[in-house]
Amino acid sequence: xxxxxxxxxxxxxQYDDALHLNKLLVSNTExxxxxxxxxxxxxxxxxxxxxxxxxxxxxxxxxxxxxFTIKDKYTRNIAGLVILKNLDWDKKxxxxxxxxxxxxxxxxxxxxxxxxxxxxxxxxxxxxxxxIIAHKKNYSSVKVAEKSGFSWRKTLKSVxxxxxxxxxxxxxYELRNEG
Length: 179
Known about the structure:
Structural class: alpha+beta
CATH architecture: 3-Layer(aba) Sandwich
Number of domains: 1
CATH topology: Aminopeptidase
Oligomer: single chain
CATH class: Alpha Beta
């Protein structure tokens, strides 16, 4: 998948992205640690980021998960990630997770990126049900879901446990393409 706007572009995660991905995640650890603990844990060092990328490339090749980078068009640095995970090919369903670096937040890039990757998931991969699961107080994530055309469906009770916290409720947003 490739997508380009005036200010950023999207492409599949590549091995050459290791340094920029590691810098993005390490420099944004505090703001991402509550909702992306597994991704952060897998990218603490440059070497672990290289291993993470290899595993994600293998996952893309086996159609079990897709990781897309959002890159600043002028610096070519990674501004964020869109991850299509929890794929169920029988149900034609997948879930999005995403993050963006603090200096790129509030520019509308993530909403545009989720819209573009949703089109890819529907038209290229053949998925019909896309989901975003966000905490109601993660206002930025909720805003991205809504601006990307996803609709709130229901509250999922105690489905996510942040590190050193009790289980918390999350909100389910869906985008359906029935044909």
